[in-house]
Amino acid sequence: MKVRNIAAGLILCMATAGCARYLAEHAEVSSNVNGRELPISSVETKEPKIALTFDVAWESADLEEILDILDEEEVKASFFVTGEWAQSHPDLLKEMAEAGHDIGNHSQTHRSMTGLSEEEKKKEILEAGEAVETAAGVRMHFFRAPYDNYDDEVIRTAKALGYETVSWNVDTLDWKDYGKAHILETVKKEGGFENGAIIRAHAGTRYMADALQPLIWAGKEAGCLWAPLSEMVRREAYHLDVTGRQIPDPEN
Q: Can you list the GO cellular component terms from the UniProt entry (predicted)?
């Protein structure tokens, strides 16, 4: 019966102007490009939205300052935290959540996921999810692989557990400790102020907190709207191009 209904729908859509809508309604999410699974690295959008994301795994002495600056500038960011960090810093985690920032899954122990068995991959993702939900009551929807080490199985495992895997297309390189000016120049040079950019930063680096406010100002001056991933990334009806850019399927 299901096959018959789909066939009838296809005949109807070919005979009417509703073809595009019918196909959109039955489109599936696809992160597979040329036979390989890819994470989302940026988003195709007509709006000048860009996302600032932070990896939080070990050091986070500057996190209070980062949160204060984001609050002052009325900017919502996305924080990918490990389960171990969440368990050690429940108050900071709650502060993030209460401020309206996205919280994403960065695994339980920050191990390279590609070297793990399927069961170990599941355990890393599930334990981090449980840790964050227990500490802050937040159920996460985005996953970022530690060290950006992913393969087909990592992305499929995350998808099966309810997560969209998100990477980035602009790295601040804050982890190299080259200085505040270098962070700003890198983001500008690499297209951080272009529609749909996903910028990666870290908590606990030497210069990120100092560079944060000037970075936010520069984005605003460029006409950008800083947005959390939850306001940019689609969770259905999309496909990716070869760079991992998320392309919305035709609207219903």
A: membrane
Contact 244, 38 (CB under 8 A): yes
Encoded amino acid at 123, one letter: K
What's the CA gap between 130 and 128, in Å, rounded? Answer: 5
Q: What is the dihedral of CA 221, 39, 237, 194, to 10 degrees?
A: 20
Q: Does 210 score more than 60 pLDDT?
A: yes
What are the φ and ψ backbone dihedral angles of 32, each rounded to 5 degrees? -95, 125
Please provide the CATH number assigned to the domain covering 31-248. Answer: 3.20.20.370
pTM attached to this predicted model: 0.87
Phi, psi angle pair for 27, to nearest 5° = -70, 145
Q: Report the alpha-carbon distance of residue 133 to residue 130 in Å, rounded.
A: 5
Q: What is the pLDDT averaged over residues 169-180?
A: 98
- Average pLDDT on 155-173 reads 98
Q: Per-residue confidence at 29, pLDDT binned at 50, 70, 90?
A: low
Q: Which of 124, 103, 122, 123 is nearest to 56 (CA)?
A: 103
Higher pLDDT: 24 or 214? It is 214
Q: Is residue 11 pLDDT above 50, yes or no? A: no
- C-alpha 19/C-alpha 15 separation (Å) is 8
Q: Where does CATH 3.20.20.370 sit in the chain?
A: 31-248
